[in-house]
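seq as requested:
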Amino acid sequence: MDNRPIGVFDSGLGGLTVVKELIQQLPNESIVYFGDTARIPYGTRSKETVTKYSAQCIRFLLTRNIKLIVIACNTASANSLEAMQDLFDVPILGVIGPGAEAAVLATRNNKIGIIGTEGTIRSKAYYKALISRKPDLELYDQACPLFVHIVEEGWSDTEIARLTAEKYLDNMKKGGVDTIVLGCTHYPLLTNTIRKVVGESVALINPAVGTAQEVKKLLLEKNMLRDSENPPDYQFYVSDFGQRFQQIGSRFLSRDIEYAEKVDIEKY
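struct tokens:
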């Protein structure tokens, strides 16, 4: 038993899709979320910068007495997971491995597409994770930077979103992929639009689902599940624009975020 909260961080709002899955699969767990909204996007940053930012986010979360950390950002998972696991004495999970595992299990023709930020695609983290699990895969990857802005503007189910998806996913459609990894935490909110573009037969993998499953498995194995009759507590912190985070984040989480506290992340 361990009643301390789970810590989750992301470069901004997108990691709330991971929090949503954690709440669904682990409804008794308390969660502390940090969104580094002052320094978004991570996707265009260097590996060194992303690693520095990740360490600062984790140092802050550790002040909240957390028992486990989830790097909900695909870019941060791709660039800094191993370094963070070496640096900190706390269980740290990323989203790349669970996403790759789910994609390998889903594919029927061994043709998998990967979409993500420029940083995630450039890192080849999903590519390496997929090939290490199944060497004979045929992979297609595509950076989709406009998707983040479309989601945050609330345009996920618009003609603008559809036309953008048509452009980004054209090569994957021509290549005949039967599985696409949604390699950015914003992208699950585009599921309906992407589905219209690629068709019902293509499996769309949300790594947040597998990540929440990995967290649950680890907590069970280490006997660290929360055991309390009191309701779980959800705390939200940001490095800038708290009100905007509350408005857009409530849509991501499918529940109201009443308050998000601003943190000077440069102190950590």
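The chain is about 45% helix and 15% strand.
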